[in-house]
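Tokens help. Our protein:
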Amino acid sequence: MATEKNKTEGLSVESRLKSLYKLQTILSEIDRIKTIRGELPLEVKDLEDSLAGLHTRISNYEQEIADLRTRLTQEKEKIADSHAKIARYKEQLDNVRNNREFDLLSKEVEFQTLEIELSEKHLNEYTRQIEQKQADIEVTREKIKDHEHVLSEKKSELEEIVSETRQDEERLREQAKALEPQIDTRTLTAFKRIRKNARNGLGVVYIQRNACGGCFNRIPPQKQLEIKMHKKIIVCEYCGRILIDPALAGIEEETAESK
């Protein structure tokens, strides 16, 4: 530990800042890879959840159709029962002894006739509902086919990207690890803390148009001069990011001014 500390102390501030900016560039590339890879798993998960919902919808439709068919059977049984009662009542009408019995039997025949009409109405309604739900099932099955096709493509794309980016990320992480010993522990710790809290993950930025490249607040000329001298680590008083001049980042000042 002492050897590493002595080694970093022997490096100039300019050298440390160069290494720090290079480290920032590498970590930004890792962030970019994570972003690319991070979107696809969410899309795959959304599609899988959507497919599960569609399959559940079909199961619900099928259960509703089964219930409707049970009702159809019950209504048909009611109709058969009413016909049997009507036949029996009509037979009894031939043997009535008085008007009271005739009226009672006639009302029963009329009531059973109305029951048949009501059951037939239910039969038509349930049949229509079954047909509609069967049509809904077909539409849902088409949606499932489309989702499965898209999901298959997304999964293949994800597998390909994961395979490709894993190697790139591992290579970049090795480069980042190799750079860390070239930066003193205090500065490196501060940089990691700043990066963690920064919305865009930038812990080191160069001056652009006389302003901080992170928060774009203007930097006083005297402070800019101190930054160019590379005598000490200077941070933005507004956002806390470590500031370097464009030349140290390998960028010509004219280019930085035009950005």
Notes: Residues 184-258 form one domain. The two ends are 42 Å apart (CA to CA). Residues 13-93 form the longest helix (81 residues). Residues 26 and 194 are 16 Å apart (CA to CA).
